[in-house]
Automatic annotation (TrEMBL):
Domain of life: Bacteria
Classification via Gene3D superfamilies: 3.10.450.50
Pfam families the record matches: SnoaL_2
Protein name: Putative ester cyclase
Residues annotated as domain SnoaL-like: 10-106
InterPro entries (alphabetical): NTF2-like_dom_sf, SnoaL-like
Length: 125
């Protein structure tokens, strides 16, 4: 069996977010997935952050602008629609590490966003 394309894996993640199929995203992550942005292990905190975000901004969606794959790493630059902006289109830059065909680790930063990781979910120490 061939491992899924890492870029397609990240696009599938965005599709789960945009369609609000949050539970369908569970299979995309390793059990010990680590989000550096949230400071959490596992995807449950990510789903909670997604829920908080769509509660605050019901029309929010992400649109992949660039997807770059290098071995087990995927960098994705996405525009964010459905949120108030300060004149510039909000953007996200995320880097994922893929292990055995699943998302194992994520780093992320945003520009022009009316929210932050801190407002979407508490980091655990």
């Amino acid at each position: 069996m061939t491992a899924p394309d890492p870029g397609a894996l990240v696009r599938r993640l965005q599709e789960c977010f945009n369609t609000r199929a949050f539970d369908q995203a569970d299979d995309l992550f390793t059990p010990d997935f680590f989000s550096h942005a949230l400071g959490t292990t596992g995807f449950e905190a990510g789903k909670n952050a997604w829920r908080a975000l769509v509660t605050r901004f019901p029309d929010v969606r992400v649109v992949a602008e660039d997807v770059l794959v290098d071995g087990d790493r995927v960098a994705i630059r996405s525009s964010v629609d459905g949120v108030p902006d300060g004149g510039d289109r909000p953007m996200l830059l995320e880097i994922f590490r893929v292990h055995d065909g699943r998302l194992a680790e994520m780093w992320g930063i945003g520009q022009g966003l009316p929210f932050s990781a801190e407002t979407l979910g508490p980091a655990t120490q």
